[in-house]
Write a structure and sequence with these properties.
With about 120 residues, this protein is of the alpha+beta class. The chain has a single domain, classed as Trna Endonuclease, Chain: A, domain 1 (3-Layer(aba) Sandwich), CATH 3.40.1350. It has five helices and six strands. The strands form two sheets. The protein has a four-stranded mixed sheet, with helices on one face. It has a two-stranded antiparallel ribbon with strand order 1-4. Strand 2 and strand 3 form a beta hairpin. The longest helix has 15 residues.
């Protein structure tokens, strides 16, 4: 089984751990974009911004309503310094490994803390 297929089968919390390690290691995060970034909602209607650790994972979600969106990378430093504060200011939450089934949905501050903890190891 290849890495992509194996990771997709992991529970959301394990995929989140994988996400943190990979984005810090590769210093980039992936979203889906076409004249705007992909957005979705949680069960309460709160807006979520989905992100993935690798292009291949984002490509798998470029289907249905997102079929016209393409994976775009975001530099980790820019993500931490610009994106996450903006997402927080907009009142959105972050969805890691969104797949329309289960994903890690969290507040920006939690993601910032976890990325910071992982970055300290480098």
């Amino acid at each position: 089984m290849n890495e992509i297929a194996a990771v997709i089968k992991l529970p959301a919390d394990k995929r989140y751990e994988y996400f943190i390690k990979k984005v810090v290691d590769f210093e980039e995060i992936w979203g889906l974009y076409n004249d705007g970034w992909a957005m979705t909602q949680d069960d309460t209607g709160k807006m979520l911004m989905p992100f993935w650790p690798k292009k291949e994972f984002a490509e798998l979600c470029s289907i249905g309503e997102w079929s016209d969106l393409s994976p775009e990378s975001i530099d980790l430093e820019e993500f931490i310094n610009d994106w996450l504060p903006g997402i927080k200011d907009d009142g959105y939450r972050v969805s890691v490994f969104w797949n329309n089934d289960d994903s890690a949905v969290l507040e920006v501050d939690t993601l910032l803390k976890d990325l910071g903890s992982e970055l300290e190891k480098y």
